[in-house]
Design a protein that fits this description.
The chain has about 120 residues and is an all-beta fold. The chain is about 0% helix and about 60% strand. β7 and β8 form a beta hairpin.
Length: about 120
């Protein structure tokens, strides 16, 4: 069973920083893409950042403030969040597009980690 385990959320003041981590465990062939999504109360889940084949993409709202990175040897993705704003408050979810075999893939989600930006 493939699992994604997230860590690093918490409470931070506006302008502060947090670093989220998400590690994949279990048996699989490889990981095609890893990314971060977030869902604020009363809103739909939205893409924050994604890393695939060495290419990264960001939501416009976080460009220049957030950085996604991967350690492929550890099957881990990170999200460095700087200059945090109250509107960044949400539950952050890790997502991985996992290749079970050379010919099949599936999606896996982490359990979510709360990020609260407040003074």
């Amino acid at each position: 069973q493939v699992q994604l385990v997230e860590s690093g959320g918490g409470l931070v003041q506006p302008g502060g920083s947090l670093r989220l981590s998400c590690a994949a465990s279990g048996r699989f062939y490889s990981i095609d893409a890893m990314g971060w999504y977030r869902q604020a109360p009363g809103k739909q889940r939205e893409l924050v950042a994604i890393s695939t084949a060495g290419i990264t993409n960001y939501a416009d709202s976080v460009k220049g403030r957030f950085t996604i990175s991967r350690d492929n040897a550890k099957n881990t993705v990170y999200l460095q969040m700087n200059s945090l704003k109250p509107e960044d408050t949400a539950i952050y979810y890790c997502n991985a597009q996992i290749r079970a075999t050379a010919w099949s893939t599936f999606d896996r989600w982490g359990q979510g980690t709360q990020v609260t930006v407040s003074s």
